[in-house]
Design goal:
Blueprint: H1 2-24, H2 33-49, E1 52-54, E2 57-59, H3 63-73, H4 75-92, H5 97-118, H6 123-133, H7 135-151, H8 160-233, H9 237-265, E3 272-276, H10 277-294, E4 298-302, E5 308-312, H11 313-329, E6 336-344, E7 347-354, H12 361-366, H13 381-392, E8 396-402, E9 406-414, E10 423-424
Parallel strand pairs: 3-10, 4-6
Antiparallel strand pairs: 1-2, 3-5, 6-7, 7-9, 8-9
Helix pairs in contact: 1-2, 1-8, 2-3, 2-4, 3-4, 3-5, 4-5, 5-7, 6-8, 8-9, 9-13, 10-11, 11-13
């Protein structure tokens, strides 16, 4: 019967730790320490609510939550747990209530004194220290037990049942508190490991970004450097001037690359205005027709619906150009790219559909993440920037694709009514 009761207490003690582990995944250990302290106070109270009465005393594992509260939550929550256990003992009453209150008070002293040095230990040392500190309440309880028996002149010298209860009690108490401490330390270790992984991922992302920027910017700068050297060596000023447009073009490309990375960090909406989306989409389609013809791809734009949005026109154009350009480049010779503009309730919807090579589910799940591209020489920045721009406009963008069947991109933006507003073409 004692074993059944103590195993119930073990469940009561471990349940708050397991519940807290779910909360702990989103927060640091210290962020929600008050919640963990409250859990220990409740666990201590419930241990008192289901004791095993024997020899005039109540046998329970109330001191495990008390020890954990002092060591892992600090003296404040240790005192709160102490008061919760004290309240539970008063409610139980009985002949040995004074002995019980003395036992609770003396048992708290060991943890209260040692908690200041507890966090100077290493994780494994903390588990060992917790198990050792838990022996103090056990010794106090045994001392109180024998004192109570002596005061009440109850014979126990030849009562082997009592010694069996004591052995079972100490064994289960040691196992339970060691297991509890191990679980708590595992939570702390996993959180530290998670932070280290996040830090490593950030450093890896920064290194990849630095390498990508250096690679992308170096190409046009190398071309510029070569032309400038030719201009310096050339004695013919007319020939030198012929190189100038190429130099300016490459510098413009370098500037565009840098702007893409800046837009990835934070899209800059310099000029927010209400404009006709029909005209904007038509302009972008017209702009990309030469590229489609070069790839032998049929580019069609269906913009029969007149709708308006309020955002930065240039940024939106850039996002749309990136997405349609990707569709054209993903489509084989003789294929098509169809851009359609329509409305759905209070949303303006743009779909870009192609019958290109499509993507696998794994590729589709990574679209829009930095440095991922299905193109051999792509960096993935263009698509990522487009996604960030659309999201910054309070819009949504989704990708649907099947291998060898093509890809469909759906953009949804909040539309506005042009009434009483200045509309730009």
């Amino acid at each position: 019967m004692l074993i059944e009761k103590l195993l119930l207490h073990v469940l009561i003690i471990l349940s708050p730790i397991l519940i807290y582990s779910i909360i702990y995944e989103r927060h640091g250990y210290k962020d929600k320490i008050y919640l963990f302290g409250m859990f220990q106070a409740v666990a201590g109270f419930f241990c008192m609510a289901f004791p095993y009465p024997a020899y005039g005393l109540f046998w329970d594992l109330r001191y495990i939550p008390l020890t954990i509260a002092f060591l892992y939550c600090g003296y404040r929550w240790g005192i709160v747990t102490f008061l919760a256990i004290l309240l539970g003992r008063i409610i139980l009453g009985g002949d040995a209530i004074i002995f019980g209150m003395i036992s609770i008070t003396l048992s708290s002293l060991g943890s209260l004194i040692l908690f200041k040095w507890f966090w100077t230990f290493k994780p494994k040392q903390r588990i060992f220290a917790t198990a050792l500190i838990s022996l103090w309440p056990a010794l106090v309880q045994l001392s109180i037990l024998f004192s109570f028996l002596i005061v009440n002149k109850i014979s126990f010298k030849s009562d082997y049942r009592l010694f069996g209860l004591v052995l079972i009690f100490i064994s289960i108490e040691l196992i339970a508190i060691t297991l509890g401490a191990k679980l708590i330390e595992s939570l702390i270790e996993n959180k530290i490991l998670h932070k280290e992984i996040q830090r490593a991922e950030k450093l890896n992302t920064l290194s990849e970004m630095a390498a990508s920027i250096a690679h992308e910017v170096r190409n046009p700068l190398t071309v510029v450097k070569g032309f400038l050297q030719l201009m310096q060596e050339s004695k013919d000023n007319k020939q030198s001037m012929e190189f100038l447009p190429l130099v300016l073009s490459e510098l413009g490309r370098a500037e565009g690359i840098i702007n893409d990375y800046l837009n990835f960090a934070k899209p800059q909406f310099e000029k927010v205005e209400i404009f006709s989306l029909k005209q904007c989409v038509s302009d972008v389609v017209t702009l990309l027709v030469p590229l489609a013809l070069k790839q032998n791809v049929k580019l069609k734009g269906d913009t029969e619906v007149e709708t308006f949005i309020n955002t930065d026109k240039n940024q939106f154009k850039q996002a749309l150009i990136n997405l349609i350009k990707n569709a054209i480049e993903a489509t084989s010779s003789g294929g098509f790219v169809h851009t359609k503009l329509h409305e759905e309730k209070d949303k303006t919807v743009i779909t870009i559909r192609d019958n290109g090579k499509g993507m696998t589910k794994e590729q589709l799940s990574r679209i829009g993440t930095l440095f991922y591209s299905t193109k051999e020489k792509g960096t993935g920045v263009g698509t990522t920037v487009s996604v960030r721009i659309i999201e910054a406009m309070n819009g949504t963008i989704t990708f649907e694709s099947d291998v060898d069947e093509g890809t469909k991109v759906t953009i949804k933006l909040p539309k506005v009514e042009p009434n009483n507003h200045k509309v730009n073409g």
